[in-house]
Write a structure and sequence with these properties.
CATH architecture of the largest domain in chain B: Orthogonal Bundle
Largest sheet of chain A: 2 strands, antiparallel
Oligomer: heterodimer
Mean pLDDT of chain B: 86
Order of helices and strands of chain A: HHHEEHHHHHHHHHHHHH
Number of domains of chain A: 2
Low-confidence stretches of chain B: none
CATH class of the largest domain in chain A: Mainly Alpha
Structural class of chain A: mainly alpha
Strand order of the largest sheet of chain B: 1-2
Distance between the termini of chain B: 40 Å
Distance between the termini of chain A: 50 Å
CATH topology of the largest domain in chain A: MetI-like fold
CATH architecture of the largest domain in chain A: Orthogonal Bundle
Shape of chain A: flat
Number of helices of chain B: 16
Largest sheet of chain B: 2 strands, antiparallel
Structural class of chain B: mainly alpha
Strand order of the largest sheet of chain A: 1-2
Helix content of chain B: over 70%
Helix content of chain A: over 70%
Strand content of chain B: under 5%
CATH topology of the largest domain in chain B: MetI-like fold
Strand content of chain A: under 5%
Number of strands of chain B: 2
Number of domains of chain B: 2
CATH superfamily of the largest domain in chain B: MetI-like
Number of helices of chain A: 16
Low-confidence stretches of chain A: 1-12
Chain lengths: ~300, ~325
C-alpha cells in the first residue's frame, strides 16, 4: 500500500504534480518506448516530413534549390499523370466493389456450414493471398501468354480467336482488372465470417418466430449489422488498390504505351529510373491526398445513412 | 419436404463454393504443375523433341507422371519378352523423365543463386520479426497500461502514420540510405521494416484487455518493470504475438517495391527481387520461372497450413471492433 500513500502525499503537497515530476516518475515507460520511437522517428516521421519538403525543391546531391510549386505544376500538366490517375481510378472502381461484394457472398455461403467445412473453405480462399503478388503476377502472365496460355486455350473451347491479353492497349488494363477480381479477397472473407459469427442468435430466432425466410433474415439482419466491416474493407481495399504496383512492373511495365500506367508505378519510374526526386516526391504527396480524400468520402457515405 | 429442399440448397452451396475455390486455387496449382512439367522429351514415334511446357493445348498436369509409368510398363514387357536392349532404353527414359521433371529446381539452385536468395529472404524476415515482436510489445505495453506525459501524442502520431501510403517515404528513405552509406546492403531493408507501426497498434489493443490487477500484484511482490513485462505481460500476450509474428514474417518475406530499389548485387537479392531479374532476363523458360515461384511460395504455404488459426485471429484483431 506504500505507493498509494506516496501519491496521495504528492497530491496534497503540490496539488498538480508538474509534468517534469510525472516524467521522472515514469522514466521506465520512456525506456520501454525508446527503441521503437527512435526507429519510428528516423525511418517514418522524418521521411514523411522530408517528402513534403523535397516536393517543393529541385533536388540535387549538393545543395537542393527551392522550386516553389514547380513540381506540382509539372505533375498537373503532365499527360502521364492523368493517364496513371485514370487507369488507377478505373482499376479501383471496378475491382473494389467486385472484391468486397464477392467476399460478402462467399462468406455468406460459408457461414451456415459446419465447423470443418467452414475452416476448409476459409483456407481455400485465404491460401492464394499468402503468396507474394510477385508470384501471382508471374503465373498470371504465363496464363495470359498469347501462344501457350491457359486463357487462350479456354477461349478456344468456345471458338473464340486467341487474344493478345497483355500486349494490346485495348485489353491490357482489363486483363489486370479481371485478374484482380479473380484473386479471392481472403481478408474480406475472414473478416465477414468473424463479424457474422458475433451476431447474436436471438435476433435470428425472433425473426424466425415472425415468419422471416433465410433471405429476409440475411437482408434485414445480417447485412445491416455488417456495415462497419464493409466500411473497413472498402477503405482497406481502396487504399491497397490505389497503390497497385507489383502486377504492373511484373506483367506490363505500364505499357503498351501508357495503357496500364498506375500512380505508384509512375512514382517509381520518375524517382528511380529518371531520378527526378522532387517530381517523384510531389507525385507521392498527391497520391497521399487522393487516398486521404477517398478515405474521407467513403467514411461519410457509409456512415451517414444509418 | 423442407428437409428435402434444405438438402438441395446445401448441395447447391457446396457446388458453388467448390467452383469458386477451384478458380481461386487454380493459379497456385498452375505454378506447381508448370514447375514439374516435362520440358522436352524425345518422342520415339514422332522422332522429334516434344516440349510439354509450351504445348498447345496446354497439359493440365505434369505429364512426366504418366510417361514414367508408361515406360515402366514397357520396360517390364520388354524384360518379360527377353528384349534387353528395349528394356534398357525404357529404363533410361525413366531416369531422364525424373531428372527433367525436377530440372527447374536443380538449375535454379546450381546456376541461379536461388539458395542464397532463399537464405537472404529467410534471415531478413527472421531478424525483422524478432525485432518487431520485442520493440512493438514493449511499446504496446506502456501505451496500453501506463499513464505518462506525451502518451496520447505518441499513440496518435503512430495511428496517423498508418494512414500514410508507404510510397510517400520512398524518395527521402532512398536519400537517407545513400547518405548513411548502406545502399545495396541488407541494413537498408531491415531498418525501415523495423520501423513499421502496425504492430504497436495491434499490441496496444491486445494488452488493453490484460487486467490491471495482475500488474499491480506483480508490483506489490516487488517485481521490476522489466520483470513484470517479461514474466507477466508477454506470456499473456502470446496469441497476439503469434499473430503479429506471422504477419510480419509474411510481409517481409513478400516485400518487393523497396528491395528492388535498394538492392543491386545479385548475391544480396531476396527471393522476389531474384524472381523479377530472372523474368527480366528473358532467357528463362516458364518452367524455370514457375519453379522459382514455387520455391518462394512453399514457405508461406507451410506457415499458413501450420498457423491458420493465428492468421484468422490476427486479421480479426486488426479489423473487428468488439
Amino acid at each position: 500500500m506504500k505507493p498509494v500513500h506516496q501519491t496521495a502525499n504528492a497530491v496534497v503537497q503540490t496539488k498538480k504534480p508538474t509534468i517534469w515530476l510525472q516524467m521522472k516518475k515514469n522514466y521506465s515507460a520512456y525506456l520501454f518506448l525508446l527503441p521503437k520511437l527512435i526507429l519510428f522517428i528516423a525511418f517514418i516521421a522524418i521521411p514523411v516530413v522530408w517528402a513534403f519538403i523535397i516536393s517543393f525543391q529541385e533536388y540535387k546531391i549538393f545543395g537542393s534549390e527551392w522550386a516553389g510549386l514547380d513540381n506540382y505544376i509539372k505533375v498537373f500538366k503532365s499527360d502521364a499523370f492523368y493517364d496513371a490517375l485514370g487507369n488507377t481510378f478505373l482499376f479501383t472502381v471496378v475491382t473494389v466493389p467486385f472484391n468486397v461484394i464477392s467476399a460478402l457472398i462467399i462468406a455468406s455461403l460459408i457461414h451456415p456450414l459446419g465447423k470443418l467445412s467452414q475452416s476448409f473453405f476459409r483456407g481455400a480462399f485465404y491460401l492464394p493471398t499468402v503468396t507474394s503478388m510477385v508470384i501471382v503476377a508471374m503465373v498470371w502472365r504465363w496464363m495470359y501468354n498469347y501462344d501457350f496460355g491457359l486463357f487462350n486455350y479456354v477461349l478456344g473451347w468456345f471458338g473464340i480467336e486467341p487474344l493478345n491479353w497483355l500486349g494490346q492497349s485495348s485489353s491490357a488494363l482489363w486483363a489486370l482488372i479481371i485478374m484482380q477480381c479473380l484473386i479471392p479477397f481472403g481478408v474480406g472473407i475472414i473478416l465477414y465470417l468473424a463479424s457474422m459469427g458475433s451476431i447474436s442468435n436471438t435476433l435470428y430466432e425472433a425473426a424466425t418466430i415472425d415468419g422471416a425466410n433465410s433471405f429476409q433474415k440475411w437482408y434485414r439482419i445480417t447485412l445491416p449489422l455488417l456495415k462497419p466491416s464493409t466500411l473497413y474493407l472498402v477503405l482497406l481495399s481502396t487504399i491497397g488498390s490505389f497503390q497497385v504496383f507489383t502486377q504492373i512492373i511484373m506483367m506490363t511495365g505500364g505499357g503498351p504505351g501508357t495503357a496500364t500506367e498506375t500512380l505508384v508505378h509512375l512514382i517509381y519510374k520518375t524517382g528511380f529510373r529518371d531520378f527526378e526526386f522532387g517530381f517523384a516526391a510531389a507525385q507521392s504527396v498527391v497520391l497521399f491526398f487522393i487516398i486521404l480524400l477517398f478515405s474521407i468520402i467513403q467514411f461519410r457515405l457509409l456512415r451517414y445513412d444509418d | 419436404m423442407t428437409s428435402g429442399i434444405q438438402k438441395v440448397n446445401k448441395l447447391i452451396i457446396y457446388v458453388l463454393l467448390s467452383v469458386f475455390a477451384i478458380v481461386s486455387l487454380l493459379p497456385l496449382y498452375w505454378v506447381f504443375s508448370t514447375s514439374l512439367q516435362l520440358s522436352s522429351y524425345q518422342d520415339e514415334e514422332l522422332e522429334r523433341q516434344v516440349s510439354y511446357v509450351d504445348s498447345n493445348p496446354p497439359k493440365m498436369y505434369p505429364v512426366g507422371i504418366t510417361e514414367y509409368f508408361e515406360h515402366w510398363g514397357k520396360a517390364r514387357d520388354a524384360e518379360s519378352a527377353g528384349d534387353a536392349e528395349a528394356a534398357a532404353y525404357h529404363r533410361d527414359v525413366m531416369d531422364y523423365i525424373i531428372e527433367d521433371t525436377f530440372s527447374g529446381f536443380t538449375t535454379l539452385f546450381n546456376k541461379n543463386n536461388v539458395g542464397i536468395w532463399f537464405f537472404n529472404s529467410f534471415y531478413i524476415a527472421v531478424v525483422v520479426t524478432i525485432g518487431i515482436l520485442l520493440f512493438d510489445s514493449m511499446a504496446g505495453y506502456v501505451l496500453a497500461k501506463k499513464r505518462f506525459p506525451g502518451r496520447n501524442l505518441i499513440f496518435w502520431s503512430i495511428i496517423a502514420t498508418m494512414m500514410i501510403p508507404g510510397q510517400v517515404t520512398l524518395v527521402p528513405l532512398f536519400i537517407m540510405v545513400r547518405n548513411f552509406g548502406i545502399m545495396d546492403t541488407h541494413w537498408a531493408l531491415i531498418f525501415p521494416d523495423l520501423a513499421m507501426v502496425f504492430g504497436v497498434f495491434l499490441m496496444r489493443q491486445f494488452m488493453h484487455s490484460i487486467p490491471d490487477e495482475l500488474i499491480d500484484a506483480a508490483k506489490i511482490d516487488g517485481a521490476s518493470e522489466w520483470k513484470t513485462y517479461w514474466k507477466i505481460i508477454l506470456p499473456l500476450a502470446k496469441p497476439g504475438l503469434a499473430a503479429l509474428g506471422i504477419f510480419t514474417f509474411m510481409n517481409v518475406w513478400n516485400s518487393f517495391l523497396w528491395p528492388i530499389i535498394v538492392l543491386n548485387d545479385a548475391d544480396l537479392y531476396t527471393l522476389p527481387v531474384g524472381l523479377k531479374t530472372l523474368q527480366d532476363a528473358n532467357l528463362a523458360s516458364f518452367k524455370l520461372l514457375m519453379s522459382g515461384a514455387a520455391i518462394a511460395s512453399i514457405p508461406m504455404i507451410i506457415v499458413f497450413m501450420m498457423f491458420q488459426r493465428h492468421f484468422v485471429k490476427g486479421l480479426t484483431l486488426g479489423g473487428v471492433k468488439e
